Amino acid sequence: MAGRKRKMLPVTDAEAAIIKHKNQTDLTLNVSPAKLKNNPCETLENAQNCEAEHSHYFTNNDLHQRLEEDFFKQSCISLAKAFLGKVLVRRCADGTELRGRIVETEAYLGGEDKASHSAGGKRTERNTAMFMKPGTIYVYLIYGIYLCMNVSSEGEGAAVLLRSLEPLQGQPAMRQLRAARRREGARLLKDKELCNGPSKLCQALNIPRCFDRRNLAADPEVWLEKDPNINPAEPNDIVSAPRIGIESHGEWAKKPWRFYLRGHPCVSVVNKEAERQSVSGNVTSNLVPSEVQSHTGQHNVKKT
């Protein structure tokens, strides 16, 4: 095309990586379910061509904003809320990137929080990541077969559980990864069912046990991004509800430290009563001063 010659600007390393990613095709897996099941740390090197799928909510940005260490330096409750709307990215060995927006979290404060793995300041080989610097990944096994992904925050032994994601990119690969853990002939999962639970999201994004103790702010295979076209969730958009699966911990089971985006179809469990309380402003009635200071989301963890 004729016209004035345009000046070419130098391309930075970050821009080059973005161009490379845009030129890649979103891939799905071509690996047997048995092989995936037996090798959870195996990468997706044998993926074949598949048309890319994106969520209806997904904004395709040319410039992804990776969250760095400073973002994770927040109290547990504050970080659990700040995660909502952020994008978890899993890069596979072939360059394929799977993305999901966080829509549900749970805060585990450690110390006096009896439902936390680090209650009473107890340190074990299993929960070491909870005592590492903010932004450290904590992956643990439940029921002997399922994995859950957490991220450490400020506070002794405090961490945030990632409960649910909205699939944004790589749904074909996610669907096949989930199918590897389901019975043969099971129905096809809807997009909203791919990552709507802590173990489901680990399966869908191929988060292996060996990711435990990695730094989410610096890891080349998994990280968090901010979507510049999505505004932070407003207080009225966030529902605070009791955490799930900890009924045996008495009063601590009632603490409203599960947070999710109101009305989002990918939330694992909707709590109508908590939603009514969130609207009326009574959600903090179950928090005591030692756990939450004012309305800032800050907390003090009892040191032992």
Automatic annotation (TrEMBL):
GO molecular function: alkylbase DNA N-glycosylase activity
Location of region: Disordered: 278-304
Protein name: DNA-3-methyladenine glycosylase
Primary role: Hydrolysis of the deoxyribose N-glycosidic bond to excise 3-methyladenine, and 7-methylguanine from the damaged DNA polymer formed by alkylation lesions.
Documented EC number(s): 3.2.2.21
Catalytic activity of the protein: Hydrolysis of alkylated DNA, releasing 3-methyladenine, 3-methylguanine, 7-methylguanine and 7-methyladenine
Organism of derivation: Pagothenia borchgrevinki
GO biological process: one example: base-excision repair
SUPFAM superfamilies on file: FMT C-terminal domain-like
Keywords: DNA damage, DNA repair, Hydrolase
InterPro entries (alphabetical): Formyl_transferase-like_C_sf, MPG, MPG_sf
Quaternary structure, from the entry: Binds MBD1. Binds SSBP1.
Family stated for the protein in its record: Belongs to the DNA glycosylase MPG family.
